[in-house]
From TrEMBL:
Pfam families: DUF4771. Residues 234-246 have a biased composition (Pro residues). Residues 171-180 have a biased composition (Basic and acidic residues). Residues 171-194, 206-254 are annotated as: Disordered. Residues 516-645 form the DUF4771 domain. Residues 223-232 have a biased composition (Acidic residues). This is DUF4771 domain-containing protein.
Length: 680
């Protein structure tokens, strides 16, 4: 079969067609692999560009503010002053609404924040943030909602000008006294033999070129280069524990007696017929306000002697000051309105040791009572002298060692007279890294000190190859572990190659007490501050750098158009089973109320999505580098400052619906006469 299909019986056209199919399949496979790799490469590239855009925003809490929001923040100081005079936060609540906060703070919290931040609107917003979220603005979080971002960005906007002023003062260049060099006097030219020999110079016109002035040098920044430890983000608090289970409901005892068939038999009395409440046996543990107290009302005939209610009086307790080491002094006993009352004096702190000051006796109900007037304190016992057992013990040991002999009739310290350093032991050679102590038998009978000294010095010279002494590591140096040196962080604030944000991080941490905006987390990443610091170090941009910004902005715009085609930032309305199925006019009001809350939640999600997308696209316009108020107004015209201003597009026109309604109402009760045909 193989020869018949692919052998010499097959024609040339079939073999060529087969070869073409194999080549085509191989090329298509290569093209498919190439397109798959190209897709993955573009995906990684888009992800990298998107992450660079997110990084260029600045801190995670930074939110770009529109012109109306900035205007509201500018008027915040005056509104705080007026609202504190009137005692009602009306103007400030209106500004919070224009700022775009939702949900908004109530009037009580807002009034408390106004009073705490009456001297500074930044302090007022910081107090509002603390009251809303339970932590200060210093703490760094992994994520912030829209309200938190608006509050922190408002604090930054109010303190940005002052921060830039402080930075200008901090990075002001040192005054350098430059001596002007005297202009060199031109040498007198020799007189020409003829006036016709004078040189004529034709100047060539060159257009003037603007030279970029170099930035002034930075001052001495040694005080900024201190160790800097970055605080980790605050973790989210754990969820609160579940509430305890409710107590079990106890049925009243009379109800249980009725179920068990227990009856209360009372004697008959034929005096009068009165409806009296029978006394039911109840537990003493039952509270007075229990809802399960069921009292039975029975008609009894005759007089029933009710039991007297016994009121349990509380056990008398001596007055306490609330402190374990103090009590009241009793100055006397008096009778007020027929009641015996103790007269309490001042609070006396009980000393550790002392005796009672007796103030006399008072006869009360046939018993004599001591009058307590305080304590007479005694001096505390003296501290014992420090014990010298350690020193005495050491002396006893050395005395025993020096004065006691061994069984060989030698003292224990035999041969230890005087000091013998390690390197000067007689008849021994000094140990090295490769050899321990060695006994030199040749020096037993050779005790000439001069010869031994010369041999020792020559040996040291031979080992070290130098006349200088080198430590070979055999002598163990004991380190005092008690003295611990303070570990200094190896990472300094500026580092080796500092960037503009490194300069800002080191300088802004010294301004926390002056400006509350400097306490914001990651304040050194704000685009406006980074641009000011870059301009201070490197100077203004060149023409080439400006063209590069335009190119980057166009690339980012193409990326956002691609994301928009993939429904980036789109909020799809959630499906609710309430509005599916058959309904009638009976459910109209209920459905309208539910639809209002449903629509409001959707508008809130849409508002937050628009704020997120606009804040993401804002750094690609490079307004921190080239600010323009008109451009900010045009850009933020697509972002609504309040959620109430956000309008949903209806699929029909309200005016056309009203016209259709009136047109149908006119034709409803109009009867056309017979024989008249309509124009249709």
């Amino acid at each position: 079969m193989g020869q018949q299909k692919y052998g010499p019986e097959t024609s040339h056209e079939e073999r060529a067609n087969r070869r073409l199919q194999i080549v085509y399949a191989g090329k298509m496979r290569e093209r498919q692999i190439f397109m798959q790799e190209l897709k993955e490469y573009r995906k990684r590239k888009d992800k990298k560009v998107f992450n660079s855009v997110k990084t260029s925003i600045g801190p995670i809490w930074y939110q770009a503010l529109s012109v109306p929001q900035r205007t509201a923040l500018d008027a915040l100081e005056f509104s705080i002053y007026q609202d504190l005079l009137e005692g009602r936060p009306v103007r400030t609540a209106k500004l919070m609404r224009e700022l775009g906060l939702y949900p908004r703070p109530n009037h009580i919290d807002l009034m408390n924040c106004l009073y705490l931040g009456r001297n500074d609107p930044k302090e007022m917003l910081a107090q509002l943030f603390t009251m809303t979220y339970g932590h200060n603005i210093d703490g760094k979080r992994s994520s912030y909602n829209l309200n938190a971002r608006l509050m922190l960005s408002g604090i930054l906007y109010l303190g940005l000008k002052n921060l830039i002023t402080l930075l200008k003062e901090r990075f002001r260049p040192d005054k350098q006294e430059t001596q002007k060099q005297p202009k060199p006097k031109p040498k007198p030219e020799p007189p020409l033999a003829s006036p016709y020999l004078q040189k004529l110079i034709a100047p060539l016109y060159e257009p003037p070129q603007k030279k970029r002035p170099p930035p002034p040098p930075l001052p001495n920044l040694d005080d900024l280069n201190e160790p800097y430890e970055e605080e980790p983000p605050i973790p989210k608090p754990p969820p609160p524990p579940p509430p305890p289970p409710p107590p079990k409901k106890r049925l009243p005892r009379s109800y249980c007696d009725n179920l068990a068939g227990i009856m209360t038999i009372e004697p008959y009395s034929s005096v009068t017929t009165l409806a009296m409440k029978t006394v039911t046996r109840t537990s003493h543990r039952r509270k007075g306000g229990s809802k399960l107290c069921i009292t039975e009302v029975k008609k009894t005939y005759g007089m029933v002697c009710n039991r007297k209610k016994t009121v349990r009086r509380k056990k008398p307790v001596a007055p306490s000051t609330g402190m374990w080491n103090s009590q009241y002094t009793i100055n006397g006993v008096y009778q007020v309105l027929g009641k015996t009352v103790f007269v309490l004096g001042s609070v006396v702190t009980l000393p550790p040791m002392g005796e009672l000051i007796h103030g006399g006796y008072r006869l009360l109900n046939g018993e004599y009572i001591n009058i307590h007037c305080g304590f007479r304190a005694q001096p505390p016992p003296p501290k014992p002298d420090p014990c010298d057992c350690l020193k005495t013990w050491e002396e006893q040991i050395f005395k025993y060692v020096k004065g006691t002999k061994c069984y060989c009739e030698h003292f224990y310290d035999y041969g230890n007279e005087g000091t013998f350093p390690l390197e000067e032991l007689q008849f021994f050679q000094k140990p090295t890294k490769h050899m321990p102590f060695k006994f030199n038998y040749e020096t037993i009978y050779d005790i000439d000190p001069k010869r031994l000294h010369v041999e020792k010095e020559f040996k040291n010279l031979w080992e070290t190859e130098s006349l200088l002494r080198v430590d070979d590591g055999t002598v163990v140096v004991k380190k005092d572990n008690k003295k611990k040196k303070a570990k200094r962080s190896s990472t300094t604030c500026l580092g080796q190659n500092p960037k503009p944000e490194d300069y800002l991080k080191c300088a802004l941490r010294l301004m926390r007490r002056v400006n509350i905006a400097a306490r914001l987390p990651d304040i050194h990443l704000v685009p406006e501050l980074k641009e000011w610091m870059r301009r201070r170090i490197h100077g203004p941009y060149t023409v080439t750098q400006r063209a590069e910004f335009v190119r980057k902005s166009s690339v980012y715009w193409q990326m956002f158009q691609t994301l928009a085609s993939k429904d980036f930032g789109h909020v799809s309305p959630p499906k609710d089973p309430t509005y599916s199925g058959h309904t009638n006019w009976v459910h109209k009001h209920e459905l309208n109320e539910k639809f209002k809350s449903y629509t409001y939640k959707y508008r809130l999600a849409l508002f937050r999505s628009l704020a997120r997308v606009n804040n993401l696209m804002w750094p690609t316009m490079y307004q921190a580098q080239f600010p323009d108020k008109k451009f900010r107004e045009i850009y933020f015209s697509y972002l609504f400052g309040r959620i109430e201003d956000l309008q949903l597009m209806h699929p029909y026109s309200t005016r056309e619906t009203a016209e259709r309604k009136f047109r149908i109402a006119k034709k409803r009760y109009c009867c056309i006469p017979a024989g008249i045909e309509t124009e249709d």
